[in-house]
Structures are given as structure tokens and as C-alpha cells.
Amino acid sequence: MFWSQEAREKLVDESRFGRLDAEVEAYLLGKPFNDARRGWYVMDLGQIMNLLPNPPARLLDLGIGSGWTSKYLALSGYHVVGLDIAESMIKLAKINCAGVKNIDLHICDYESDIDFGQFDCALIYDALHHATDEARVLKNVYNSLKEGGKLVTAEPGRGHAEYKDTQEVVHDFGVTEKDMEFSLQKRLMQEAGFSEVHQYYRLSEFVLADVSSEHGRTTQINQFANLYAITREAGFTSIVVAIKKISQPSHTSVSLGTKTSVTLGKKKWLEWLFNSVARRKILVFRRKT
Ligand SMILES: C[S@@+](CC[C@H](N)C(=O)[O-])C[C@H]1O[C@@H](n2cnc3c(N)ncnc32)[C@H](O)[C@@H]1O
Fold it and tell me: Could you tell me the distance, in angstroms and rounded to a whole number, from the CA of residue 84 to the centre of ligand 1?
């Protein structure tokens, strides 16, 4: 048991998600290890940790639910401020994180003013797509970050809002559900002021094959192609990193050593060229298989 009976009895129905019964609480307090998708969650957290600046760093975690990301990030050495709009979630998160140092949890609407000081980094894990005004959330995060600060998001992509499961949640709990594909996040992040927005394959979506045989190796290459296709072509989920840099305008010349100087525009063009070559290779590969 992660929580006392007394604490459990004090939990009341204050969440807009309705009353939490014991089974739901137990699930939320044991997340991610009691979930059938535990491997996915832990891989996500590992990938996110690799993308965040190293601890110790101040980290703002938004839409934390019962606080599992906040808990394991604080245990890793981050100074975490975790926010959620639902009082019942913050109560659970406090139970979940009892005894963990460097963690502050607050009931807070990420669409209202956020004033918890300046942060080195921020995380929105599976929560931005619940916002009614996601542009406001991203602006709030931007304002809360120090210069050079990083925001990492892990959100569902294109098609999420139409899934039957999603529609049931909307119907049953009245929550907002949206598609949050990379192109939308990128536009909103740039509008919020972020100067760089990067997209990463979500490695938890990468299906592993046994590569000890020729067949397995071919299958594995096929899975790389699938990951490319679901991420870049179908617009499904990915991990997004936005960086706040105010002093460097995005299209000035940057010096790469004493003699070489390229513009960021040219770098982008090279990136495009590389991607289109890679894309053609994958299409050729798919046609062959
Ligand atoms: C799908 S849950 C994800 C929770 C957590 N990140 C996790 O992985 O378990 C989305 C969370 O976002 C929170 N949320 C929704 N709207 C919010 C808002 N306006 N401000 C802050 N949190 C919000 C919900 O209360 C919920 O806990």
C-alpha cells in the first residue's frame, strides 16, 4: 500500500473527473508499474529524461494527474513543481510523492496565470490535448522558462479525438480531447515565442524484432519504416522539444569556426534534402518488401 487508510478516506469527489473509487485510486497510485503499458511509460520517461537538461534543474510538470512523472523526476534530482487542475489528483499526487524531496504540488489551471518562478525545463505528458486554449498553456510555459529553457511534450497525434475510446471519455467525463499532432504543436509553440521546435520519434512506439536472423533484421528495418510512416506521414504521436532562446533571431548567420559560415536557412534546406532522400529510400524499401 502506498497510502494510509486515513488519507484514502479523506479523498472526496472534487475532481471534474468525478468520484475516484478505490480501484481507480489504486491504479493511479501504482502508475506506471501496474499498467499493462508499463514498458511504454517507462520508455517514455527514459526518452524524456534524455531530452531534458541534466538534474539538478527546476522543472515544471503540467497536468500531472496522480504525479508519477513528477515523482520519478524528483527522485532523479530535479526540483519539481507539479500542477493539475483537479484537486483530487493533487491530493493523490501528494500521497504518491510523500517523502520525496524537492517536489511541490499545486492545484492550478495551466490556462490561468502561472506564477511559480522561473524554470530550466518543463514537461507536459499527455495533458496538453485536454486544454481548451492550448496556445495560452504554451505561452504560460514559455513565460515560466528561463532563456535557453526546454519544454518537452508527449501527446497523442492526428486522429486521437475520433477514436471510440476517446469519444467515450468525452461523453462520460466531459473532458476536452483534441488531436495534438506535431505540425499544430510546432505552430503554437512558435506563436508562443519558442525559437526552435524539434520532433523526435517516440521510441516507445518502436516495435522490436529478434535481429539474430535475417528475417528478424528485415522485420526490424520494416519497423523503422513503420515508425517513420506513422510519425511523419500519418502524424501520430511523437516527442516534441521546444527551446526558448530570445537573444538569437532565427535567420541570422551563425559562425561555424573561423572560416565557415552558414545561414540557418541553408541548414534547414540541407535538413529537408536529407529527409527527402531518407524518405525516398524508405519508399523504395517498402516497394521492394
Ligand atoms: C490524461 S491525464 C495525464 C496525467 C499524467 N500526466 C499522467 O500521465 O498520468 C491529463 C491530466 O491533465 C489535467 N488537466 C486537464 N485540464 C487541465 C488544466 N486546465 N490545467 C491543469 N491540468 C489539467 C487533468 O486533471 C489530468 O490529470
Answer: 6
Same domain (yes/no): 283, 167: no
Q: 16 and 114: one domain?
A: yes
Would the CB of 126 count as within 6 Å of ligand 1? yes
The reported pLDDT for the residue numbered 21 is 86
List pLDDT tens digits, range 65-110: 999 999 999 999 999 999 999 999 999 999 999 999 999 999 999 9
CA of 175 to the centre of ligand 1 (A): 10
Residues 242, 268: one domain?
no
pTM for this structure?
A: 0.80
Q: Packing angle between helix 264-288 and helix 214-228, nearest 10 degrees?
A: 130
Q: Which residue owns the Cα nearest ligand 1 atom 10? A: 127
- Domain holding 282, by residue range, is 260-289
Cα–ligand 1 centroid distance for 245 (angstroms): 27
